[in-house]
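User: I'm preparing a small set of examples for a lab meeting where we compare how different chains pack in three dimensions. I only have the primary sequence for this one, and I'd like the structure in token form so I can line it up with the others. Please keep the answer compact; I'll paste it straight into my notes.
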Amino acid sequence: MGTTQVEAVPEPKYWHLRTVLSEALDSEFSVGEILPNERELAARFGVARATLRQALEQLELEGRLQRRRGVGTTVAPPRVGVSVGTEQHLWPGAPGDAWQPSDCTLAAPPAAVADALGTGRDEAVHTVRRSRRTHGRPVAAELLYVPASSVPELSAIEAPSGPARARAVLRELQRRELQRQESAVELGSAHAEDAKVLDRLPGSPVLVVTTRYVAGDRTAALSVATYRADTCRLTFGDAGGVQIHHDPPSRAC
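Assistant: Understood. Below is the structure token output for the 253-residue chain.
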């Protein structure tokens, strides 16, 4: 690689360097390739290592780079497309649902969730934990809150705990007629438990998709799904539900 000096520009030097590095990633490196170490990169672009780190951190946040312990900094694959549609409404756990249930507990939810569900703040609800992977990578974690009144026929004897109980709750939801679902998206930070599932550090940026499922003119379930912001991009349309596209056509910031 040749030597490229970063010229004086009015914008922050690290931001200009981020643009230069991004162009280099497109023209000189392939997905999965390991970048030269920080000393080599700083020398190539004629910047301090602190400036370089800022630029690398920004590119990691945008999903262009991945920092892996024991490996180094590698070029990340294109973001995984997440389509949030509104035309087709399905209960969680319906056929074709790619989420994998891992656990189910019965406890009082956070106050904000209880208010959204219309339950008492001390009233226990079923909390189903699910996760989603694609290309062998964890991309999302979900907490699905289901009031006991939404699954009145649930048998604690048949499915006392764990994945079996989670599947039983999802199965009972299918018995109800879903009127509609409403989704909202916002940027958030990964809590410790979600970060562990997503293989990220606590506080890492995430995309939070909150979905309210309505049946009988009341909220029958509430989903809080946390997606890795560094590997996922949201697309909007009427494809229905939340889907993972395995071959996104292009990278999106």
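A couple of notes for your slides: The first helix runs from residue 13 to 28. The longest strand covers residues 137-147.

User: Perfect, thanks.
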